[in-house]
Amino acid sequence: MAASSALRVAVVGAGAFGRNHLRVYSELQKSGYPVELVAVVDHDLAVAAQAAASYGISGFESVEAFLKAGIAVDAVSVCVPTVLHAAAALPLLAAGIDLLIEKPLAANLADADAILALSREHRRIVQVGHLERFNPAVTAARDELRRPMFFEAHRLSIFTPRSLDVDVVLDLMIHDLDIVLSLVDSPVREVRAVGLPVLSHKVDIANVRVEFENGCVANFTASRVSTERVRKLRFFQPHQYLSLDFARQDLLMIDVTAAAGMDPAQLAALAQAAGEHPSAGLSLRKVPVVEGEPLRLEITSFLDAVRGRTRPVVSGEDGRAALALALEINAAIASHAARTGL
Does the global pTM surpass 0.85? Predict the structure, then answer.
């Protein structure tokens, strides 16, 4: 592939996630980025036709119809419901197409392994859409990493009928599971979890404690039946405490070893703005963060990997690891429910 040639891309699934992928690909194309959006696929032909008309591209009702049409593409975003990921991904991989698959990678490990096996067989790139990895605040936090030993993650959302094919662990918590796994880099030793269905037939709220082999502990809370939206991650490492707000894309660091030379009024103002309340004598600062749209950053990273034939930032193996931990958590929730008669 010539360095200057445009990558031809398509989107499978034109629901809430797929529409955003279509938008970003189109915006990149209009901005001069070497990419060309050529097709959209959705099982609802009317939805596919509407999206096709909006972007001036071809529309199809199924992956099979898309492949049969013989439209040449280099890469595809798979944005169908999780339970359909493998059904959509496998024929695309077999056709020699690189994939960006929305999180989670699949609904179960058998499907995930089938996707990864076929990607290796056909030497195709698979990136998993763990969007928060590309949040600029996460990028900034990674640069400040010094042996983290405790994490506290909260991801709360107001109830919507979106993504009810999976539980809250696979829907929301898996974002934080993926991030913590990438930051800790240690095998999981123990999982304790409790969860309950509230407004759906699947678990809608869950609390989890994960201990890693290196001694790090992570607490996760996820709810899709909250009255507020919260997306925060806090972690502690020797002599430091960092608070990350995904929505605001900001990162606050409290350093207990730095000299307490900050003016008390300035310290109080910073703390109030960040929603934190440090004690006197602690040094607090906001870490510089270069703002950006995570989805745009994710998609350009994927396209760069496709063009350069390099390992993506969030590989298929990373996606499988997050899925495996999520499923272990679900098993722990089921075990707790059985023990307590819930």
Answer: yes
